[in-house]
What we know:
Elements: E1 5-19, E2 22-35, E3 59-73, E4 76-88, E5 95-113, E6 116-133, E7 142-159, E8 165-184, E9 187-190, E10 194-208, E11 213-227, E12 251-263
Antiparallel strand pairs: 1-2, 2-3, 3-4, 4-5, 5-6, 6-7, 7-8, 8-9, 8-10, 10-11, 11-12
Amino acid sequence: MVTWTQNAESWGRGTITPIAPLSIMLKIGNGLRKASSFDAEALPAEENPLVRAYDYAPRDRVFYTLTGAWTVTPTLTWSVEGSIAKDDYRSSPLGLQSVHEQRGSTNLTWTPRDTLSTYLGVGYERLFNLQSGFDGVGTTPWLAADSERSWNLSAGGRWVPRERWTLSLDYLMAPSYDNTDTTSGGSQQAFPQNWSKLDSTRLDLAYRWTSAMQVHFRYVRETYSSNDWALEGVGPSTVPNLLALGIQPFRDNVNLFALTVRYQFGRDSTPRAAQ
């Protein structure tokens, strides 16, 4: 068993402003986690002494983050952010070997006046992890590589047509894909691809009845679908000993209507003439 761990992290950051409306920042860092020697004799008989718990195992980490913001015009703003993080478990003979993450996003905001603003955003994320193991003494070790890619597209806006009214509309589309490859005995096998997709639309309408009370109406429409090869077609004849027979990949359709009234004590609640 592990009796102690030690974490150390260092990073540096630099910002450059080539022109007044444009700012770019780069952050670079690394981390090192050390752990005491592993006492295999303290483990239960069924535990594998070569596997290290990921939150205690020695780990090497490096990360990079780049962000930028540009005020194109007084009403138009563009921002970009990207990051890379790599975790490697070099002292773990089996189990989790590495986790790599890549992220990128950009957002465009347009505010032609105080009562109206709109935005458009795009994002991407890739997660990769590598694991190793074996089925028993004398068996051939195996490797499993899992890669998940996700995208998101969002758009929306906020409008204040009158002093007491606020209308907001937001849309999100987020598909993702997952691929798993295994290597055992020198031969490679790829599992079928899994995927999921989320479509969400949200409408908010708020009316400030008085300075202390606000009435809020919300409508949300969401559609979520997914495909999981491990669950498709599972039935009593295919897996007779499975307890959760009939389980299927998630597929949801949601229509949510909500009406809320919020009152803040301590504020002047004198009614005003409707506008």
